[in-house]
Amino acid sequence: MKKLLAFLLMAAPAFTSVAQTTVPTPEVQIKAAVLAAPADKRDGAAVYGYTGDGTLTLLRKGTNELICLGDDPKQKGFNASCYHKDLEPFMARGRALRKAGKSGQEIFDTREQEAKAGKLKMPKNPTTLFSFSAEEDDFNKTTGEVKNGYLRSVVYIPFATSESTGLPLKPDGPGLPWIMDPGKHNAHIMINPPKSASPAK
């Protein structure tokens, strides 16, 4: 979970060894990034990835409601995510704050305050994020193929609670949904299937 949260707060911190980092081609980044999306959403999703100097950039414009973030080549392992476009203000704010050097707690507190004040626009309807991850050796940076991947889902329902949804505060069993950060701007339903049941893309 910590790795997922760190990924969602991604930005472009100072690069100390960019020249030694292998950045896949835009085509490979797009191919791998959309593996996080449902199959029928992949062709139309917008995709963000990285340039050779580590800058996050739009690699492909989208024609549907999903935005995908490709794997950060600086980070160990593979991690891509796709989320509903209504989450973009929330995600973009997190990236901007991280780039400004804010800590995870500072980012959370700032977005909480801004959301409550109406300054940060949060989705009015439940919106989904899909996260797809794998070990470093299971991601082929030349072909974009990923083996033994793990797919999990998050449904954002800002300010919802256990009482308003009927969801437990922790999972009652493998793969069962539960609510995290209830009552907060980023309240969300976690759905983590058993790894043995997660499809390898």
Could you explain the architecture of this structure?
The chain is of the alpha+beta class and 201 residues long. It has one domain. The chain is 22% helix and 21% strand. It has five helices and eight strands; from the N terminus they run ααββββααββαββ. It has an eight-stranded mixed β-sheet with strand order 2-1-3-4-5-6-8-7, sandwiched between helices. Helix 3 crosses helix 4. The radius of gyration is 17 Å and the shape is globular. About 8% of the residues have low confidence.
Q: How helical, in percent, are the residues?
A: 10-25%
- The biggest beta sheet, please? 8 strands, mixed
Radius of gyration: 17 Å
Give the tally of structural domains. Answer: 1
What is the H/E string?
Answer: HHEEEEHHEEHEE
User: What is the terminal separation in angstroms?
Assistant: 21 Å
Please describe the structure with a list of short key phrases separated by commas or semicolons.
201 residues, alpha+beta, 8-stranded mixed β-sheet, 21% strand, signal
Summary of the model, kept short:
Residues 1-19 form the signal peptide. Helix content is 22%, strand content 21%. The chain contains five helices and eight strands.
Secondary structure blueprint with pairings:
Elements: H1 2-8, H2 26-33, E1 46-50, E2 56-60, E3 66-69, E4 78-84, H3 88-99, H4 104-116, E5 127-134, E6 150-156, H5 162-165, E7 178-180, E8 188-191
Parallel strand pairs: 1-3
Antiparallel strand pairs: 1-2, 3-4, 4-5, 5-6, 6-8, 7-8
Helix pairs in contact: 3-4
